[in-house]
Amino acid sequence: MAGLEKAPSQELTRRHRVVLDRDALKALAPKCSSVSDPVLSWVAGLLKERIADMRTSRAKTAKALGLTDWRAPYLIGLAGSVASGKSTLSAELMNLLGEDGSGERVTTVSTDNFLLPMAALKARGVLPRKGFPESYDRRQLLAFVEAVSAGEQKVRCSVYTHETYDIVSDKFRTFNRPGTLIVEGLNVLQTRRVAPTDTAFISDYFDVSIYLDAELSVLEAWYERRFADLVRRSDAEHPYYGQFKLLSEAEISQAARERWRAVNLPNLQKNIAPTKTRADIILHQDANHRIDEVRVSKHWL
């Protein structure tokens, strides 16, 4: 477990040369902000500048190539552990990036939408490993990212909901050339091949990749709270959380810890945390979800 704590590995230190702690970030962050953490506004400002530069560069290139109707979105990959706050950060970034007045739409998509349906997970015997690489339709996810990146119109994906713990049958989301798309999930920086002949990974299409980090003990505590909240919000018929409805709060907490240590922690250690060094930006959070350290890859500067 020590290898996943905040102390950087040699590889992490070598790749991420720019390291800003909370004090340095507070000095750089705007004094007034529409969000609770001004540091997040500062991070969004970095992304806005890069997006603006990319739009200008791509427009010039398209014009030089005689492409009159070609437009590709700016793709942001956001990775991190279960319960690290990826969806919340994704929504906050969507709102902040939408403040630049450019008129370009910013939207988000979770890789949960590319989980295999529960029936398929059961048939393959991988339901207990939900969230591991083999529980996703990785080929469909890659095809989706490729299509959006290419500027295709009306690109669809399935819809997943925690309410049923499953993919919603016959329901889809459609993406029609968003200005910026944030793709968030456990697996966005993973490089496991679906087939030996595969040559592309999802992360190949990202203009910037972000890893949302926190201490292991904090992540476990966040997961325990989220687990308990989902149990409270579910009814007794829920395909997963319903089985815990009649338990005491102490028993629900114990069930959450067992789930974390049996499934989510091994997945984090084996498949998620090792991708941290591939991120362009690492955002480390304290126990209150405030960003207290930012690491920027020298390759992104």
Please give the number of β-strands. 9
- How are the strands of the biggest sheet laid out side by side? 1-9-8-7-2-6-3
CATH architecture: 3-Layer(aba) Sandwich
Output mean pLDDT.
88
Name of the CATH homologous superfamily: P-loop containing nucleotide triphosphate hydrolases
In total, the number of domains comes to 1
CATH class: Alpha Beta
Helix content: 25-40%
Gross geometry: globular
* Whole-angstrom Rg: 20 Å
Q: What is the string of SSEs from the N terminus onward?
A: HEHHEHEHHEEEEHHEE
Description:
There is one protein chain. This protein is α/β, with parallel strands linked by helices. The protein has a single domain, classed as Rossmann fold (3-Layer(aba) Sandwich). The protein contains eight helices and nine strands. α3 crosses α4 (86-97) and α7 (216-233) packs across α8 (249-272).
